[in-house]
Amino acid sequence: MYYISMVLMSTKIDLILKKYKPGRREDLIPMLQEIQDDSGYLSEEAIIRAGSFVGLSTTKIYGLATFYDQFRFLPAGKVQIKICNGTSCFLNGSQYVINKIMEETGLDPGQTGRDGIFSYEIETCMGGCNHGPVISVNGEYHTHIKADQLPELIKKLRYIIENE
Ligand code: FES
User: What pTM does this model have?
Assistant: First the structure.
């Protein structure tokens, strides 16, 4: 099963690379974005393949990709949380929400738990500045979030996933 999914992922990377011309470094970021949109994250194989396609070392690709905070290097959790820490949300207390999520999940931003349930990322603006702090849970937006709502929300989400 694992082997089949690795072959499928490899084939998908091939299909994406075919859309670009080899050696064009300016295509790197859109190419990585497309790979991530397709598979949810940038695997080590994707980094190596994209690097050799545009003629950059793996170290350089990691360096560039980590500069852009939209890239993930691990598969996301079943529950993917995004938290806005843009100016408006920050002024409304997003840091308390972030601290509480870290406390409740035991994860840093960009990490996925060993049980594969939670992952979360910090965003710079999620388009709801007048309603912050804003979070999204698997694409569903929650506004005016308070840190003390998090333990119950996390508990509920964990229960749903564990009983699927
Ligand atoms: S700053 Fe948080 S939604 Fe814009």
Answer: 0.71
